What does this fold into?
Amino acid sequence: MVGGSLSADWLLSAYRRGIFPWPCVDGDIEILAWFSPDPRAVLELDELHVPRRLQRRLRRGEFQVTFDQAFDEVIHACAAPRRKDGGTWITGGMIEAFCRMHDLGWAHSVEVWHDARMVGGLYGIAIGGFFGAESMFHRQRDASKAAVVFLVQHLRRRGFQLLDVQQDTEHLSRMGARLIRRDEFLRRLQQCLQLPVSF
It folds into this structure.
């Protein structure tokens, strides 16, 4: 689907239906597109795999974590171009929309620090017991993986039931992400939306 808007009402309505925005950008051409993949990638909160090297780094306390302390910096870091052509799907409109969602209490960030410097993080949308992870970044090895670990630990403590990672990337697959059918995802999503938990 294409079109629509990035208003808070539109975004909430889309996420509650298992749909997320992913603008298609080609040079100066930008099309607001919406996706609901089948199958859908999720990271089960009780199936997280933490690589041994990262386990050692976490035990040594090399990384520190905060939540919702630097949302603007996290989303801008996620939007920094990574492809050779310098492109990014996190457009200015997306940044503005998700910062507004953060101000409204729907969008949240995980910040990973080392020696008082932010070295990684991620952001996403929380509704009921559902968290939709949108993007992550790292400036130091293992920092984005650490962000995932800290997020999963936090979601477990808060009573969340579903962590949507949208696509089964190699990075997330090694941490335990798996694909489920869209109808199963949508069924679980509707159950999670009713849970009286908050980020």
